[in-house]
């Protein structure tokens, strides 16, 4: 059980004028409670209910925005707090309007017989539902933009359920870091902790599902930087795109709702000879028809001129960067990875201020989602572990003269846990979802399988050929196949 800090109980009231936001940042080990006393307010597009209390923890940095003015009561002591009247929320509202038009048109187009279509009212919109790729440098608010736009879509009366795609492998989205994932969203995504930036998923808590727990489709990449293994990343993006297409075939409402793709800054950086290769992969796999560039003129121009963008008539829109987006450093990023891994296995137990009772809480704050992971001892022979690519291999200079390395970036290499330096101790492993567990499969197939869960190797007993595993549930791991990357469990 992990504790998410203590909250001091002093309370402060803030009166927010229309179109302003209260921004706050929390220190490690502290938490904050905010009550909407009157008026209307939202956190990154997710509305707050009047009179309810919302909690924030794990060094959360966020803002309470109001369109019409409100009064909030803040219980606790954030390390930074201020009100700003300079926000990009009008730009987001305009984007939301454009995307709503595209959804309505796409939905009507899908009907049989097709009704007479009313004019969209907005000129030169690309055809089809909004399939939006969000790009920008590091710490520009890409994840926040995706959240706001998704939340504005699900809040309309039409009942849209857009697909949210997380390609930021430096953070886990709904699961652990190192993954890419997608999930249809039909209720607003709350913000309360960077341990689960896109809301809680069902994958970590099969016995404690909240009504809005999401079931994302997940593929394992294994590293924070998408440029580390570009060919592998392209292949996973293609796989995810195909899975989403299949989902859209069986769910026309989801198809018309469109999708939002969150990326890491690695997608926006052009490296020599491979200019915007991952952007092109996204355009192809997700049939992107809108690119939203956050606050970066040069990237905006590069996108307008990208042949793949010109050929497909993709609409490129630039929106300003919010002054509220926090510059986060590597140490904080490392702590977020730890929070996300810990949340996957242990859940969280938030300490409430003395004056706050659990019954007064609103939204989806996980006050007491304590999970009990299991420690299992298994034999080396029970599990097959692969690493993708060549990182544990001898350097090319150590190969015999004249011989060439034949292993490619996407070649699965079988790992022997008995080999010293296997890199398995404390490694995070993704368990693959093979339809028939234990059935024979080709090595290559491990590249294209989605993930059913995660485990950590906590002890390696080479003499007795045993592994001690931390697993979210007690089930057997016999004949399972797993992938290892570069993420480690830190106590
Ligand atoms: N208006 C705001 N007020 C306060 N905090 C904010 C605001 N907008 C974003 N943040 C916070 O700033 C941090 C960075 O934002 P975000 O994760 O959206 O950026 P990003 O561009 O996706 O980052 P990355 O480079 O890691 O992909 C997050 O903790 C987010 O909650």
Task: Write structural notes for this entry.
- Residues 371-491 form the Clp1 C-terminal domain.
- It is found in: Nucleus.
- The protein is α+β, with helices and mostly antiparallel strands.
- It folds into three domains: 1-85, Jelly Rolls; 89-319, 3-Layer(aba) Sandwich (Rossmann fold); 374-488, Pre-mRNA cleavage complex subunit Clp1, C-terminal domain (Elongation Factor Tu (Ef-tu), domain 3, Beta Barrel).
- It has helices at 89-110, 142-154, 230-250, 252-257, 277-286, 297-305, 307-311, 330-346; strands at 11-16, 20-25, 32-39, 42-43, 46-47, 53-56, 61-66, 70-75, 80-84, 131-135, 163-166, 179-184, 217-220, 259-262, 290-294, 315-319, 347-349, 368-370, 374-379, 383-388, 412-414, 427-432, 451-461, 466-471, 480-488.
- A hairpin with a 4-residue loop joins β23 and β24 (466-471).
- α3 packs parallel to α5.
- It is globular.
- Residues 1-8 and 203-213 have low confidence and may be disordered.
- Bound molecules: adenosine-5'-triphosphate (ATP).
- Residues 23, 61-63, 136, 138-144, 168, 264-265, 322, 324-326, 328 line the site of adenosine-5'-triphosphate (ATP).
List the helices and strands and how they pair.
Layout: E1 11-16, E2 20-25, E3 32-39, E4 42-43, E5 46-47, E6 53-56, E7 61-66, E8 70-75, E9 80-84, H1 89-110, E10 131-135, H2 142-154, E11 163-166, E12 179-184, E13 217-220, H3 230-250, H4 252-257, E14 259-262, H5 277-286, E15 290-294, H6 297-305, H7 307-311, E16 315-319, H8 330-346, E17 347-349, E18 368-370, E19 374-379, E20 383-388, E21 412-414, E22 427-432, E23 451-461, E24 466-471, E25 480-488
Parallel strand pairs: 10-14, 10-15, 11-14, 15-16, 20-25
Antiparallel strand pairs: 1-8, 2-7, 2-9, 3-6, 3-8, 4-5, 4-7, 11-12, 12-13, 17-18, 19-24, 20-21, 22-23, 22-25, 23-24
Adenosine-5'-triphosphate (ATP) is lined by residues 23, 61-63, 136, 138-144, 168, 264-265, 322, 324-326, 328.
């Amino acid at each position: 059980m992990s504790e998410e800090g203590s909250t001091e109980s002093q309370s402060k009231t803030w009166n927010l004028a229309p179109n302003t936001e209260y921004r706050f940042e929390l220190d490690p080990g502290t938490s904050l409670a905010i009550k909407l006393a009157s008026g209307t307010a939202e956190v990154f597009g997710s509305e707050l209910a009047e009179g309810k209390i919302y909690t924030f923890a794990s060094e959360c940095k966020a803002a309470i925005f109001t369109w019409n003015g409100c009064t909030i009561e803040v219980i606790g002591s954030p390390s930074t707090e201020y009100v700003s009247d300079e926000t990009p929320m009008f730009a987001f509202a305009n984007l939301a309007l454009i995307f709503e038009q595209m959804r309505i048109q796409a939905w009507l187009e899908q009907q049989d017989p097709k009704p007479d279509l009313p004019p969209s009212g907005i000129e030169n919109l690309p055809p089809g539902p909004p399939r939006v790729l969000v790009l920008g440098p590091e710490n520009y608010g890409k994840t926040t933009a995706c959240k706001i736009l998704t939340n504005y879509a699900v809040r309309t009366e039409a009942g849209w359920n857009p697909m949210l795609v997380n390609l930021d492998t430096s953070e886990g989205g709904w699961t652990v870091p190192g993954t890419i994932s997608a999930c249809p969203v039909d209720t607003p995504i709350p913000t309360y902790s960077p341990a689960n930036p896109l809301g809680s998923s069902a994958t970590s808590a099969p016995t404690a599902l909240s009504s809005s727990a999401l079931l994302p489709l997940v593929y394992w990449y294994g590293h924070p930087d998408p440029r580390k293994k570009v060919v592998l990343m392209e292949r996973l993006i293609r796989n995810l795109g195909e899975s989403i297409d299949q989902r859209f075939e069986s769910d026309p409402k989801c198809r018309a709702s469109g999708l939002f793709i969150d990326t890491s800054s690695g997608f926006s950086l052009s490296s020599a000879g491979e200019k915007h290769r991952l952007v092109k992969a996204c355009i192809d796999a997700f049939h992107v028809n809108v690119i939203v560039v956050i606050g970066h003129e040069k990237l905006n121009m590069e996108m307008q001129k990208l042949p793949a963008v010109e050929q497909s008539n993709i609409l490129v829109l630039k929106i300003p960067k919010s002054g509220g987006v926090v510059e986060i450093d590597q140490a904080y990023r490392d702590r977020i990875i730890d929070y996300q891994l810990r949340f996957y296995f242990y859940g969280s137990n938030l300490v409430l201020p003395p004056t706050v009772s659990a019954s007064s809480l609103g939204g989806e704050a996980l006050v007491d989602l304590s999970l009990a992971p299991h420690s299992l001892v298994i034999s080396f022979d029970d599990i097959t572990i692969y690493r993708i690519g060549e990182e544990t291999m001898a350097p090319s200079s150590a190969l015999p003269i004249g011989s060439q390395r034949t292993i490619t970036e996407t070649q699965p290499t079988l790992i022997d846990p008995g080999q010293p330096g296997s890199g398995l101790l404390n490694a995070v492993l993704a368990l693959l979802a093979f339809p028939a567990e234990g059935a024979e499969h080709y090595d290559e197939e491990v590249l294209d399988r989605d993930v059913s869960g995660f485990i950590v190797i906590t002890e390696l007993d080479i003499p007795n050929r045993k592994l001690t595993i931390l697993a979210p549930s007690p089930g057997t791991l016999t004949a399972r196949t797993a992938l290892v990357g570069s993420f480690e469990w830190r106590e």
